[in-house]
Fold:
Amino acid sequence: MIRDIAYATFDALGGNALLRARRPGAPVLCYHDVRATDSTSGDPGLHLPLDQFVAQMQWLAAHTDVVPLTELLGRQRQGRSLKGLAVVTFDDGYTGVLEHALPVLARLQLPCTIFVTGRAPAQPRPFWWDWPALASIATDPAHRDRLLVEWQGDGERIAAAMALESTHEPADCLPADWTALRHVRSSMVEIGAHTMTHRNLVTLSDSELRDELVDSADAIEAGVGVRPRTLAYPYGLWDARVAAALDAAGFEAGLTLDARDVVAGDAPRALPRTNIPAAITTPAFAAWVSGLSDLRAQRASHG
Ligand SMILES: [Zn+2]
Structure:
């Protein structure tokens, strides 16, 4: 609350506008899910209430020029200015994005990219971080190494290691199926890849890594009719070997969660994004997206 007053005061004094006027780069925003109910199921950091999403998109439409991710990439490649631009992305392909976020974006005529996990749409089941038994520890830094390194962020391994039954709950945290994704794909809604099984790519062997990338492109091409050109690294985790494999697999861009603006000279397979946590308030959002970068250092627990 006190921090919100500080953010609002900073804005009222012209701070946000001054930051935007001076920044050379463009923020790429990373969302996950948008929900219209007050349900608290799933990872609490990922499911953004619809009214907050509406307020954030209205702010973006009023203060930035929101462009498709591929347009940002093209401008960056050509050495053109990125000033004043912003990009909206969603990881994981949640049903809530199609049902609640896309109508808001259509009304405001804002484009977006949805990064789809290749294996999810054929048989939509909740992701491991939304399972009731794991929602409380999925975001806990103390468990991060075990979940994402030792068990590679692999839902099957995590379920086996923790002796959890496979579950269809929570039912309001499901990924969208292929029919729904095919229906929404358009020039305003790009579909990117988010690997095949959402494992931590850094921990995989060379052949596993290649399969994760190529298989997800194949699955998405078969599912929605267009081969994805961009990929968001699961959990934002990548290294030079992963970026090289992405290049070899034919992707133009890889998106991280490195929490800063995209600027001229950024490597296309290591483009930073700013995670927007579900609990963020609109004054904080306005400050972060205006470029108050030291205050958006809160790293995503998940990507
Ligand atoms: Zn993800």
